Amino acid sequence: MEAKANRREQTKAQNRETILAAARQVFAELGFAAATVRDIIRATPLASGTFYNYFKSKEEVYQALRDEQALRLRPRLREARLAATTAQEFFQASFAAFFSFVAENGRPQGQPDPFRMDSPEVLAGFAELKEDIAAAMARGLIPESDSGALAAAVAGVAFELGGRIKAGADVEEMTGFATALFLGGVPALASS
Question: pLDDT at residue 88 above 70?
Fold first, then answer.
C-alpha cells in the first residue's frame, strides 16, 4: 500500500513538472498574452483534464514558475546578506545578487511582469529580508530603525530597478545606484 502511495506521489510530481516545463516553453515561444491553456496542454503528453488537476489557469502556472524562481533566488540573497561585514557590503551584495538573477532569468518578451506578491514563497523571501536587516542592525552594520519599513523600501527599489534591468539597464550601474541611495540618500547620488 505504501509503495502505491509513493508511486502516486511521484506521478503527481512528474505531471506537475511536465506542465511547468511545457508552460516555460510555450510562454517563451508565444509570449504569455498569446499563449493559452490549450497550447500548454498540447505541449505535454498529458490528457487535458490532467492540467486542471494541478492548475486553474495559465496565470496560476505562470505564478508557479515565478515561485520557483523565488525559491532559487532566496538562498543567493541570504548568503550575500549574511556574509556582509559593513552596511555597504550588505546593500551592495543584496542588490548585486538580485539584479544578477534578474538579468540571468528575466522574463522573455511578451510575458507579464506583475505577479502575486502574496504567494508563500515571495512572502518568505520578504520575511528573510526583514530578519537579515534586523540581524545586521543587531550586529551594528545598519543603524537601528524599523526593519520592516527598511525591508519594504529595499524590496521596492529592487523590484523597480529590476524592471529597468529587464529592459537592458546595466547590473553594476543599478547596483551602484541602489547602494548609494541606501547608504547616503538622494544627496549621495550626485557623487555615485
Answer: yes
